[in-house]
Amino acid sequence: MKRDQDLAFVDIGNTSAKVAVVSETELIVESYVYQNTNWHQSVSQFPKVITGSTPKQWLIASVNQERSKTLEVAIGNNQDDPVIQRIRHQDVPLSTAVDHPDQLGIDRLLSGFMASTLFAPPLIVVSFGTAVTIDWIDSEGNFAGGSVLPGIQLQTESLALRTERLPEVKWTKPGPISLPGKNTSDAIRSGVILGLASAIDGMINQYAEQNSIAAGNIRTVITGGDAEWVTPYLRSPHLPQSNLVCHALWELSKRKP
User: Fold this and answer.
1) Mean pLDDT of 196-225
2) Is residue 255 domain-resident?
3) Whole-number Cα distances in Å, 130 to 133, 226, 237, 238
4) Is 160 within the bounds of a domain?
5) Where a domain ends, among 64, 86, 108?
6) DSSP3 helix / strand / coil % (the chain, rounded to 5)
7) How many domains, in total, are found in the chain?
8) Which residues pair with 82 in a beta bridge?
């Protein structure tokens, strides 16, 4: 098993890439959006900036293959003979009970794996990204499927794109939501944020009822950068866990011989 300091972990999403390294006993994570045209250079150089050395191995989880290829070229340009491992479904020790396991997003599988490592199932794992996923880890510890909703930015972009007069709301810093909204932008914000909060609360109750489990006995784990907009309005108890995918990659590296 390689030393933690020899490793770098990357979570490539649809909007941004997160890169992480271990400093002493802590995972240091940074996010780079693709709107920054030099994102791949920033990701490839981040480990050396933090640790002072070039990682010997990169573990990458990706839902965007083109972005993965771009990053791998940048890594190869910055160091000689890097070892790059793209994490596949068979690398993740979490059983699935879904129709097409090979089509399951690796980010969802890794988040489920890490959540079930931290907490005993049954679990609901909510991940806020470009899409919001609400996934179910059943009492036997299987990833049993879930639901997918458009994320905060995607919802507001769609409203602006498909209507004539609705503005595209900018999401900068989380703050209070006005209900009712007294202007169009506030009305959109309240609809998106409170709509997502209600959907998550409702899904928790649905899973509890469907599985004859008290809702209070189902732990809900929440991750993702946009979670901070919605969690203040959730009525259900929940457990915030930042950067689940990067932590899952770190956990996998500890289990490798």
Assistant:
1) 94
2) no
3) 10, 9, 24, 21
4) yes
5) 86
6) 40, 25, 35
7) 2
8) none
Element at 242 (helix H, strand E): none
Among the residue ranges 62-76, 112-126, 205-219, the one predicted with the least confidence is 205-219
Q: What is the CATH number of the domain that holds 65?
A: 3.30.420.40
How many Cβ atoms sit within 10 Å of the Cβ of residue 30? Answer: 15
Tell me the pLDDT tens digit for each residue of 149-178: 999 999 999 999 999 999 999 888 888 999
Q: What end-to-end distance do the CA atoms of the chain give, in Å?
A: 5
**Cβ atoms within 10 A of the Cβ of 181, count?**
14
Domain that holds residue 67: 4-86
Residues in CB range of 116: below 8 A, 6 or more apart: 94, 123, 137, 141
Structure tokens at 189: 């914000």
Question: Locate tokens 């097409």: which residue?
Answer: 100
State residue 1's pLDDT score. Answer: 47
Same domain, 125 and 239: yes
81 is catalytic: no
The mean pLDDT of 18-26, rounded to a whole number, is 93
Residue in the structure block whose two tokens are 């469907």: 210
Q: Which of 6, 11, 107, 135 is catalytic?
A: 107
DSSP secondary structure, 112-168, as one string: HHHHHHHSPSSEEEEEESSEEEEEEE-TTS-EEEEEEEE-HHHHHHHHHHH-SS---
In a domain, 257, yes or no: no
At 24 the three-state DSSP class reads coil
Question: Within a domain: residue 107?
Answer: no
Report yes or no on whether pTM surpasses 0.90: yes
- pLDDT, tens digit, for every residue of 42-68? 999 999 999 999 999 999 999 999 999
Contact between 245 and 20 (Cβ < 8 Å):
no
